[in-house]
Amino acid sequence: MRTSRLQLLAAAGVAVASLALTACQDGTGTRDEGASASQPVASAPSDASSQAPEESASGSGGNGSTANGSTGSGGDTAGSGESGSGSKGSSAGKGSAPGGSDDAPATFNPCNGSNTSVSAAPVSRPVNHMLITVKNTGSKNCDLTYYPVLRFDEMQWVPQPVEESKPQAVVTLAPGESAYAGVLLSAADGSGSGGATGKKLTVGFQGRTPNSDGGPAAIPSLPAAGVYYDSSLTVTYWQSSTDDALTY
């Protein structure tokens, strides 16, 4: 009986060894080795994801010296803070827009030959001067910009303004109000040249910008004898009073 048991144990050992050998031959060991080799590959995504914040942080913060994932995360937070402050900055800019529009000028309505009456008359003092008067005959305010553009008959040149007479603001006329411009017709000492007698005067109006068209011109009546002028002919900017208009 003892011998039989030993024989059985020996047979069992041979069977186990045979099974182990068979496992090695049919690729089980190869699969085990494959599982071991796949371990680092499985951990690669984890490593890659831990590097992503660093790359993102260095990209957004412009700093390539980020040392680790936690620092990279801090960089992202700082980037978010900067972005937030940038958004606040844009909001402040938009907030200032209404203030700018409040400061914008009101709707521009030029005075011209269609909504005013215009007269031109020589004055005794100062000598060789003429006064142009514009009265608002319309139903709403109108604006007189810059200075009148004068033309006697077929004159081919434009009289220049007296720059010293430029007012601080545009002259605005309410209905029924008047404004003025003074005209130096000729030099009192006779130093002017090209003297002529004008029979017809055209008064042009300027728009919002210099030398732009402000609308229909006016043709005020002149004395029957006409008005003498020479190369000294100049005109003031529009003024709110006759005294200011005739000062120059």
TrEMBL record:
Name under which the protein is recorded: DUF4232 domain-containing protein
Q: Which Pfam families match?
A: DUF4232
Q: Where is the composition biased (Low complexity)?
A: 35-58, 88-104
Q: Which UniProt keywords apply?
A: Signal
Region entry Disordered: which residue ranges? 26-121
According to the lineage, what is the superkingdom? Bacteria
List the biased-composition ranges (Polar residues).
109-119
